[in-house]
Amino acid sequence: MPxxxxxxxxxYAVGCALIAWLMLSIMQTGSVSAADMQxxxxxxxxxxxxxxxxxxxxxxxxxxxxKDRRESLGGPDVAMRRYPGGAAMWCEVAKELEVYGINGIQxxxxxxxxxxxxxxxxxxxxxxAGNQRxxxxxxxxxxxxxxxxTVKFFTTLQAELSHPNxxxxxxxxxxxxxxxxxxxxxxxxxxxxxVEEKFGPMVxxxxxxxxxxxxxxxxxxxxxxxxxxxxxxxxxxxxxxxxLVPVMRQEFPHKIFEAAVQNxxxxxxxxxxxxxxxxxxxxxxxxxxxxxxPDSITLxxxxxxxxNSHHLPSYNWEDMLxxxxxxxxxxxxGQEPVRSLRQDIYTLNLxxxxxxxxxxxxxxGFPAQDPKPVQVTLEVCSPDGAVLQSFDxxxxxxxxxxxxxxxxxxxxxxxxxxxxxxxxxxDNSTTPLFPGTHLCTSxxxxxxxxxxxxxxxxxxxxSGWAMNGQPGGSFITWPGPQEVFICSDGVPAxxxxxxxxxxxxxxLRNGREILTFxxxxxxxxxxxxxxxxxxxxxxxxxxxxxxNGCRFTTAPIYVLGQQRTGKVSIPFLRLDGTVQxxxxxxxxxxxxxxxxxxxxxxxxxxxxxxxxxGRIGGKGxxxxxxxxxxxxxxxxxxxxxxxxxxxEFLAENGNGGGFYRFQGNGYVMVHGGTxxxxxxxxxxxxxxxxxxxxxxIGTCGNQVNLQMLESGHLQASQREAKVLSTAPxxxxxxxxxxxxxxxxxxxxxxxGILQGTTPCQPRLCETLNVIVVGGNCRFPYYPVNxxxxxxxxxxxxxxxxxxxxxxxx
Length: 809
Hints:
Blueprint: E1 4-5, H1 10-29, H2 34-38, E2 54-59, H3 86-99, E3 104-110, H4 116-129, E4 134-140, H5 146-156, E5 168-169, E6 172-178, H6 185-199, E7 203-207, H7 213-219, E8 225-227, H8 234-251, E9 256-261, H9 278-291, E10 296-299, H10 320-332, E11 345-350, E12 352-354, E13 358-365, E14 374-381, E15 387-390, E16 394-396, E17 401-409, E18 418-425, E19 437-440, E20 449-453, E21 460-467, E22 470-471, E23 475-477, E24 482-492, E25 503-509, E26 512-519, E27 524-530, E28 537-545, E29 551-553, E30 557-560, E31 567-573, E32 579-585, E33 591-594, E34 603-604, E35 614-618, E36 648-652, E37 657-663, E38 666-670, E39 680-687, E40 694-699, E41 705-708, E42 714-718, E43 721-724, E44 735-741, E45 745-750, E46 753-759, E47 771-773, E48 788-797
Parallel strand pairs: 1-17, 2-3, 2-10, 3-4, 4-6, 6-7, 7-8, 8-9, 9-10, 12-19, 23-30
Antiparallel strand pairs: 5-6, 11-13, 11-20, 13-17, 14-15, 14-16, 14-18, 18-19, 21-22, 21-24, 24-27, 25-26, 25-28, 28-29, 28-30, 31-32, 33-48, 34-35, 35-38, 36-37, 37-48, 38-47, 39-44, 39-48, 40-41, 40-47, 41-42, 42-43, 44-45, 45-46
């Protein structure tokens, strides 16, 4: 796209060219007259010109920006800075929207499950901000009493229909409908008539995320236009736009065409398929959307960290997504780009990468008020600050948005725990080390990215920090929970700049806050009791942050458990498709172990030290889809207090053990980066009293599955590779299963005896998020072929274990 320095692939260029060709064809062939368009239209005419060149971001009332950073719903997916609660929080949101050129929010709710008080707080906050940011009702059209529920919704919020911050077009409130296509257009017409009879005319837009031309032609005579709330790959977006643009421009030019820009959103239950490099999809989606020439634009989700789709300035992305939007919106509106006081350069990197793959690093710069060429060198360092790779210098002009991209082969650096980027300037000064890309042996525990701006770093005179006398960048081994002595010496610069001064000191464990206290600087000593790393390992940072979200983060200190020492050999799949063995520290290999010895309610307890607990529950949306995963993995959720009844925990003969009894209606979900993409071992003990087809272990994408057949045989499979037990399993006896994959063969063991081996070609798949226990994983919260029988002693290991390493029967 003009004004951007960035690479583009050929497929993407073809897609945008197709949209441009369609637009040219429309202009050349002419259009049907407005009178002809509207003669079969059931909606009153309105003037949509006031809606053109507006930009909106979706917001979910159940994911406000001020989420507690230390609870299970926190993690690195928290706001860039601290927010107040209630209306004051939404006042701050409105102020930020103005900075980035966003007109307002489309606030999601459902007509049958409304968030009335949240709407009122939003209106109050936006009015207090005094900057004319607007609120759009974004309504899920759910429920069996659609007409009555919708009328009730607006009756309850009738006062807000006259609020100055409610967005109106041509004097009419604009309503965006989510999932409206699930109803007949005639039913929607009935809803509109009932609502407008009582409250006056409105403008109704339908979410058209996957609409086909036939659906548009069916619905658009009954509605006022389309909006979009969705997520696609870039190829899917190109295809959708190539079909929608001609219909909207040729057949319904008088209707609103609101198009979406998609970010790196991983939908609730992502299990592979989205390009993990942060900017690729977002930049391409912006270009594709602008090529379609919509009336208005939406951005997917202000702050929904559960779906990793937030735009609000956030801890792991800072405000980079909004800065890109700010730049594109100015160009779309024919305005000069917003220029920062100094040259802002963001460093982007993944939070983790698999050994053997490429670790991407991106630099992105934005226009400056005094544009002078700035030369920087990207250095990638070890945790102790040693330079591992210094790339060639690159220059930023400060005139436009500019991007420079780098890739680093992780194979020669496999001994490193993490790769930490920093920038070196022409005068040899450097930024501090930014958060690093951790090198993983067996799976990426989450699909997140870091983005850090050079001008958002708090300048600080810092001589370092230490834990029990060990400095940043070092490794500590200890056997259990321990009171440690933390000492730090650092004084921040004081002044009027937004990145001057501190305010809050944070202790981070694996990127998550576990302790915070007020502090202007990092000059303190403190005794802190840290949790037991078990057989795992943890990394700790100190961080100083101020009220603007600027921060200084120290180098990490690694705390290693003592249960697994020495090195082990693991086969790795490299980028060229070859498989190569490598020695790796045993403690770096992740595993999750669920012995099922204690009744822990709705939580399937992991004893490995990774705290990667599962969620026990019944079938359906409210059952096993939410889970608790402690400090490690990105998808987390609350677990209810009531104990599940299927599966049910049962003690085992008073010997201190136990098991879970499945009755064909429940299952267990282990989420947040669980199914190992490479060399791995899956173990489970099972007992049955009858034969029936059922899933025992299931993953999305058929990465690994264990199921019982009608004959009573057990079948282990991975994609097309299948291995069958040599005989049906006996009734009433515990059977210990182990499924082993080594990047070339799939092996199936029953009670330590090899049942068979079959070739299974490797496939580079960075993450397979979901494992279902007690069913086949068709879609995470709707598993099929649910199991009847008993299960216990479950372990998923990120290495191809040998027979003598299996769990005992």
